[in-house]
Amino acid sequence: MVKIKFNPYNREIEVLQGENLLEAVRKAGIFMDTPCNGSGTCGKCKVKVINGDIISTGSKNITEEEKKNGYILACQSTVNSDAVVEIPETDSSSMHGMKIEDFSGSREKNIFQRSRDQILKSGMKFNNNIKKEYLELDPPTLNDNISDFERLRRHIKKQLNYDDVFCGLTILKKMPQLLREADFKITITHIPDEKGKTVIINMEKGDRTDQLYGVAVDIGTTSVAACLVDLHNGELIAKASSGNAQMKYGADVINRIMYSTRGNGLEKLNHAIIQETINPLLNRIYADSKIESDEVVSFVAAGNTTMSHLFLGVYANFIRQEPYIPAFVKIPLIKASELDIKVNPETPVYLVPSVASYVGGDISAGVLSSGMWHSDKNILFIDLGTNGEIVFGNSEYLMACACSAGPAFEGGEISCGMRASSGAVEKVKIDSSYNPTFSVIGQEKPLGICGSGIIDLICEMMFAGIIDRKGKIIKDLNTDRVRFDEHGIGQYVLAFKEQYDLDRDVVITEVDVDNFIRAKAAIYSGITTLLNNLSMDFTAIDKIYIAGGIGNSLDIANSVKIGMLPDIDQNKIQYIGNSSLMGCYLTLMSEDAKHKLEEIANSITYVELSVESEYMNEFVSACFLPHTDIDKFPTVKKCLDSSV
Amino acid sequence: MVKIKFNPYNREIEVLQGENLLEAVRKAGIFMDTPCNGSGTCGKCKVKVINGDIISTGSKNITEEEKKNGYILACQSTVNSDAVVEIPETDSSSMHGMKIEDFSGSREKNIFQRSRDQILKSGMKFNNNIKKEYLELDPPTLNDNISDFERLRRHIKKQLNYDDVFCGLTILKKMPQLLREADFKITITHIPDEKGKTVIINMEKGDRTDQLYGVAVDIGTTSVAACLVDLHNGELIAKASSGNAQMKYGADVINRIMYSTRGNGLEKLNHAIIQETINPLLNRIYADSKIESDEVVSFVAAGNTTMSHLFLGVYANFIRQEPYIPAFVKIPLIKASELDIKVNPETPVYLVPSVASYVGGDISAGVLSSGMWHSDKNILFIDLGTNGEIVFGNSEYLMACACSAGPAFEGGEISCGMRASSGAVEKVKIDSSYNPTFSVIGQEKPLGICGSGIIDLICEMMFAGIIDRKGKIIKDLNTDRVRFDEHGIGQYVLAFKEQYDLDRDVVITEVDVDNFIRAKAAIYSGITTLLNNLSMDFTAIDKIYIAGGIGNSLDIANSVKIGMLPDIDQNKIQYIGNSSLMGCYLTLMSEDAKHKLEEIANSITYVELSVESEYMNEFVSACFLPHTDIDKFPTVKKCLDSSV
């Protein structure tokens, strides 16, 4: 065994000689964002050896200078002796870091209000099916000595008129003491069905009828967001988000599925999403709002089909293999205790139904909250998360497809990419002398760049003449912000480390630009192919809703300029935030919405892009800024012409 | 810390100086039967100090000679240094020891046959509600790419005509791989309801429709018995029994309940019954019968009300406190996985409903299997287990009471008492020179005496003139088998240790006889009081069924002679074995029987003896051999007269 100490965490662990260094980092409980999951290609697990014998194969992700300074890729290294290793303070902590959101701000509020209005306008009601009742039971005597549960049942039958009453084991376990401590004055939380039966899911002392809480969770591949809701009035009590702790096992669903098939990989992924992501988020929310987990009696979650499988711990590998079959799209209700989610153990877990292997519950929920299902206008819904999903339609029909956009929109596979959280550059301008100005989420110090920032950056670089329309960096520009490494790969420095006291410069490389171009091309060609499939073109679009983790500051004009979105009237394009979380929220609040959601998931027609012959051509044509055929982007053409 | 080594187990543990020695024995994982649970009264935790400093308070249960030889009571001792302690090889291992029963023998078979006949004669059917179906699904293709679960649902809907299909999480988890490994040819096990729904509880590869198994368990306070049943034909595949591992926490329900209220006592008791008793029994059965736990898809258990609470881990203390209220008498179905029982995790656990705090599910099940519920004759049902419960009635009415008989019938609170398992003396004769002959269950060497043996022994001692009618040992008899300790307490030696190479003599003391007389008096006075309550006497009894753990060799005549059973025509009295287990077996096999069982539990009228003023008088009068009023036992009187 050898001892490895990790700075600045001051954490020491013992591992076998010969252990992979990235595995050692994970065993030490230190989070590193490793999109390629140890294959040595993403370059994100860069660490600095302070002392000790660590054997490392070289990597094109390590420059000569870095090599001299002791930098190696942890995933490409094995430990040969006791050692001290420094882990750079990059975005990784903030990548996973938790953020309690203040939604007193108008933007978040407006988005919620808009979703609520969609439901109410369509004639649905906020009718969740969870009820609370305050009961005063007759205490037992020698003459009235029926069991506690029979006493409760008798009272409920008489007072509330239910034929039969059920309860789970956890209720039975706490009932005898609780009844007596409460002097037989209790509040039950129960879920009645239409047939005169009801199921008790919680029991509290005294009158607690005014407290009724639920939790909605959006399980994104990169980011997870949760909100605590007062089920009486629909008020949001707290909202929090963090990185998905599964990121350490791969950046996208394909890498995660691959990891899940190895050893106890599936268990680890399930543990990562529930124990390392959702429960910590909930604990933060509870601490903040002074609410106990036992009081939370409703839970709705949505994720893409793979996330849904991993959330339940269900084998997901056949999603990835032709003919791409999920184990389920819709599951029967299960109890929170079965998944060990930190809410009341009897809470029914509702997982939003998926449509197909690559159009998940997050899209069903997004369509619900967008309101497109009761619109007579043609609406294009685009979810820009770790993948890109597109739905087109109206109250008559809904068509969907999934684009292999990869994780670039949430900062994945971008050297300084990060999700839209504290420390992320979200808006960028570049002046004529190639110098940038930018704004950072939550603080001064730029730790990395999120999706909206990358769009701005690429767009500005193009218009400033730093990159050409292929995304290649122009040589011999008169600026120290542009440089080329020994392999000839160019990069643009957005922020010098000296200026902000960082461990590294915040840069964008030609490789990053190329990755991002392919991501945006996947979206654009997806839209084109889906419309062609319906024999339509962009003129048919009455409205575009953009949803997802790309960031609140998404610049619509720039998104068009780089050719991600079609060049239509930009007043028709609107960012609607985390529509999946909104859909979960609506489902929490309304049984009507839940039924509608199931209808939506059932009715969406899935178009498999990989079998559409034209898709590949469309994609290749779109791998340009904004497009190989500039005439498809008349307003951008005009701008480019004028900027030359 | 000090080290304690236990012989002959060769087990060593470290404990804090000052630790109680009985606690140290438990921590070392060694089972000792301690009915009084450490209060120093039962004298069962006798151990021998080989070396080391162990501080012990004296005890009347340790003779001067034993003291000289280093014997102490573990519960009354604390450890002061490293030590070596010998634990006598008494009944304790066999008390808990597991026994796989061979029921090819006629007795066991007859008892089963009788119970089955009761059900069938009453017009019920063997119609258990668990079905198996072999299905050949169409494998998925790119054109038929619905999810695995939808595919299954579609097939079941079409082929079996169920409107809706549900399944639990464990099924969902194994489905994707299982379907493909099985080439989509599978067998499902499911439970349909009447409304066109069905719930899948197991899934296997290929055609397994011929394999359908269930388990029935009788959870006695002292003994636990389990049997594995072929649900297709009702055949018993294996049966096993063992001591209830909860015994280390107290011999009777009151001591167990008291233990359950301390610290994590409830958890420990729940662990003892499920993890240390039921699951090991099932593992033995599975190993013996080459059946996997996953194939067992039905589970029925019965126990007294306290055992039922502890089995579920439900707080039981209010059973013990006036007004004696159980938390429940009937529970909704729960899943085996919720209790961690070693059967298929989706298996519904059916716990037989209780009647009241002191008439449990074991009695409901016993009444079912006795058939008294459809008899027009008056039947007296007596369960002689750790407690004694009595039910009287017929198809018109059923009255029940519980007698505080204590654990004596199963060997509890008797110095050499043990349950009716291997090594127990089950039958005894004593000749005119005070020498005994006896038979031992399963082997030659007598380790202790079980209930039926104690009845014989006391009866024979009375007729041989060793004890008087108060149970006191006659002095100055011409035999070395009778002796008195320094406190003047007499004892009779049934087996000298030298003769059988034992660690101690097998004896019965005056204290034991006294304990047993109180137990048998509780039964007799219970019968009298119950009949008086109905303004009836013994002439109203058409039949007596004796059930319970007292032992297969129960001698009816001797039971009457000592005054446990009324002096009626002995042809009317029949031993029917473990009627609780039989009732569970019938419930496994028949939904009709299950409905009848619930009817029985609902319809039994419970008579609380402690509030019947005459009960105490009846009890005191019965604390004689056979009774203070010998005229109540005319045939015994005749025998006694002739033996004088």
UniProtKB/TrEMBL annotation, chains A, B:
<dbReference type="InterPro" id="IPR042259">
    <property type="entry name" value="Raco-like_middle_sf"/>
</dbReference>
<dbReference type="InterPro" id="IPR041414">
    <property type="entry name" value="Raco-like_middle"/>
</dbReference>
<dbReference type="Pfam" id="PF17651">
    <property type="entry name" value="Raco_middle"/>
</dbReference>
<dbReference type="InterPro" id="IPR027980">
    <property type="entry name" value="RACo_C"/>
</dbReference>
<keyword id="KW-0223">Dioxygenase</keyword>
<dbReference type="InterPro" id="IPR043129">
    <property type="entry name" value="ATPase_NBD"/>
</dbReference>
<dbReference type="Pfam" id="PF17650">
    <property type="entry name" value="RACo_linker"/>
</dbReference>
<dbReference type="InterPro" id="IPR001041">
    <property type="entry name" value="2Fe-2S_ferredoxin-type"/>
</dbReference>
<feature type="domain" description="2Fe-2S ferredoxin-type">
    <location>
        <begin position="1"/>
        <end position="91"/>
    </location>
</feature>
<dbReference type="Pfam" id="PF14574">
    <property type="entry name" value="RACo_C_ter"/>
</dbReference>
<dbReference type="InterPro" id="IPR040506">
    <property type="entry name" value="RACo_linker"/>
</dbReference>
<protein>
    <submittedName>
        <fullName>Ferredoxin--NAD(P)(+) reductase (Naphthalene dioxygenase ferredoxin-specific)</fullName>
        <ecNumber>1.18.1.7</ecNumber>
    </submittedName>
</protein>
<dbReference type="GO" id="GO:0051213">
    <property type="term" value="F:dioxygenase activity"/>
</dbReference>
<dbReference type="InterPro" id="IPR036010">
    <property type="entry name" value="2Fe-2S_ferredoxin-like_sf"/>
</dbReference>
<dbReference type="Pfam" id="PF00111">
    <property type="entry name" value="Fer2"/>
</dbReference>
<keyword id="KW-0560">Oxidoreductase</keyword>
<dbReference type="InterPro" id="IPR052911">
    <property type="entry name" value="Corrinoid_activation_enz"/>
</dbReference>
<dbReference type="InterPro" id="IPR012675">
    <property type="entry name" value="Beta-grasp_dom_sf"/>
</dbReference>
<dbReference type="GO" id="GO:0051536">
    <property type="term" value="F:iron-sulfur cluster binding"/>
</dbReference>
